[in-house]
Sequence to fold (544 residues):
Amino acid sequence: MNISKYLSLKIGILVILSEVIVLFFTGLFYISRFSNEIDSKAISQIEIPGSLMSKGVLAYEIIQDRVTIENLIGVKVKECYIIGLNSKIYYSLDKDKYGKTLSEMPSLQQFPELSKELTSPVIKQLSDELDKYMISIYPLKLEDGKLVGYLFIKALTKNIEAAKNRIAFTFILGSLLCIIITSIVIIYGVRIFVTNKIKIVLSMLKKLKIGELHANETDITSKGRMIEGRDEIGQMSSALNELVSRLKELSNFSIEIGKGNFESEIKSLSENDMLGNSLINMRKELKKAATEEEKRKSEDDKRNWASQGIAKFSEILRQDNDNMEELSYNVISKLVNYLEANQGGLFYINNDKEEDVFIELAACFAYNRRKFLQKRIEMKEGLIGRCVQEKESIYLTEIPKNYIQITSGLGTDNPRSLLLVPLLLNEEIFGVIELASFKYFEDYQIDFVENIGASIASTISTVRINLKTASLLEQSRQQSEEIKSQEEEMRQNLEELKATQEQSARREEEMRRNLEEMKKLYEQSLKKEEELKKTLDEIKNKKG
Fold:
């Protein structure tokens, strides 16, 4: 069962249920109404004999004639009595009951109204196992209004019930025919005017489900849009056309974004346009990511350029570091070419003499040619002197007139930018790099030159230290040779001194022996002198 039939069936069932419910309650209302009218008519007819008798139009004896009574009330009569106020039966269809009283009639004892003075008729509905009955107790009055008795009629209601059943049957049959006819009309009408159009919409939705944005040729107009209308389905088709157009627009937008065209534009339908706003935000984020990626790539390229340059110049600085002139030329020529500048100069501070410190041009390079220039600059002279004094880079795009000119085979012209970078190492300045170009220097190029300047300063410092060390070593060597010569002379002197000392030692030993001998002689002389003195004293004593 396809969707159109299924939808038609559901609508048909819904219509049938609606009709059944409506007709059910309508039938109940009208059947009840017709039944009440039939009952009202039956009550009115069953009261006709009593009314005519009270008016004197109909004689009491007429109740003995069944045909007349039944013609008057329109139904079959089971029992019919005229009962006096004394509870005595005066007239009856059955002559055997003439003269009987209510106490003798068990079938009448269940009606207490017969023992009361009624002012208005009483109608009752009764039934037993076999039939249904209508009971009428009508008070009989004279012209002056005096109550004289009652007319009791017990009529079968088979005809009335049959009339009610006929009405109900007719209504039910008509309702069924109405339901069948209207259901057929509605179901086919729905299929023609609703489900066929829904099939087109459904077909388009199925295509949208698998990503297709084109309808069948039989389902679209010449403009490639679904057939629209003023009804709800037409409005739905119109909304679907707008959706398809929007999806095509979003698809084209996504394709352009996929190609990297972040300038492609699309408008948001509203704040609640989730897809449109999401794609716009996606473009914004992708554009931001692309910009950041481009910036990152540019920064990576700059870092790689700087890293390669530093490695390149580190290798240059390791070469010819024993020849400052050749090293200076290699540095400035490679730096000018690496920066794609036009001219460059490398200046060193000459502090060989403490009383005469100045800045000298060590190397100059322009247009791939070596320039042999001699230039002396005082410490506070010009931009180079200022750079030395301030120990900071100077970058100019408005160059003082006649400060510098770039000369080539085509002529002479002023550069657009001038860069001076001090050669600093631990706050000690060794010189200045000067670069001139017809292009502007970027910040990363300036940072690179400053880094190279620090490396050049370090190399100059190392070279100067090495030269000074070499000079000191040469001086030390010369001093060492002099010391060795002096040591040899001293050795010879020492040997001579030693020989002299040995000779002196021998002389000293000889003198010591002589002294000892002299001492002994002296002691002997003293002893002899003492003996002589004693002898003299003895002689004196003897003389005295």
Observations:
- The chain has nine helices and 14 strands.
- The domain at 1-207 is CATH 3.30.450.20 (Beta-Lactamase).
